[in-house]
Specification:
Number of strands: 7
Distance between the termini: 58 Å
Helix content: under 10%
Shape: globular
Length: about 140
């Protein structure tokens, strides 16, 4: 398979932790933008959530900075090299720094709003929440 032929995933098949996600979705609505502060350097960023989907399901797409003003309800988007993550137990689709988001002319007639993947609650279980530490430190005698 050459580099130009991408495998496209339907929204209904997305799961938390997917990487290199290529999909085509229709924008149902775009929420209001809000300001957040980076944990790393306390810099200010604008983000917004957009509900997007296809005939198999819908999911929340997180938009950052310049992406917010570029899309509106009814647009069809092609996302390449995106990823899914969990935010407060809700699965989200993200474009990220390595991914691309662009409008395309393909038409998606119906978006399946009944299968909203972001409404399902997923439980994050980090390894530190286990009964004990996975690797115990040996005491020297």
């Amino acid at each position: 398979m050459d580099k130009n032929s991408a495998v496209y995933v339907k929204v209904g098949d997305l799961k938390p932790g997917f990487v290199n996600v290529n999909t085509i979705v229709k924008v149902v609505n775009v929420g209001l933008s809000r300001v957040i502060f980076s944990r790393r350097d306390r810099s200010e960023h604008q983000i917004a959530d957009a509900l997007v989907g296809d005939e198999t399901g819908s999911i929340i797409l997180t938009l950052w900075e310049k992406q917010i003003g570029k899309i509106k309800a009814g647009d069809t988007l092609e996302i390449k090299n995106g990823y899914t993550s969990l935010f407060r137990g809700s699965i989200r689709l993200n474009v990220g720094g390595r991914g691309t988001l662009e409008k395309v002319d393909k038409e998606i007639e119906n978006v399946n709003l009944k299968n909203n993947l972001s409404e399902e609650t997923h439980i994050e279980t980090p390894w530190v929440a286990s009964e004990g530490r996975p690797f115990r430190k040996r005491r020297r005698r």
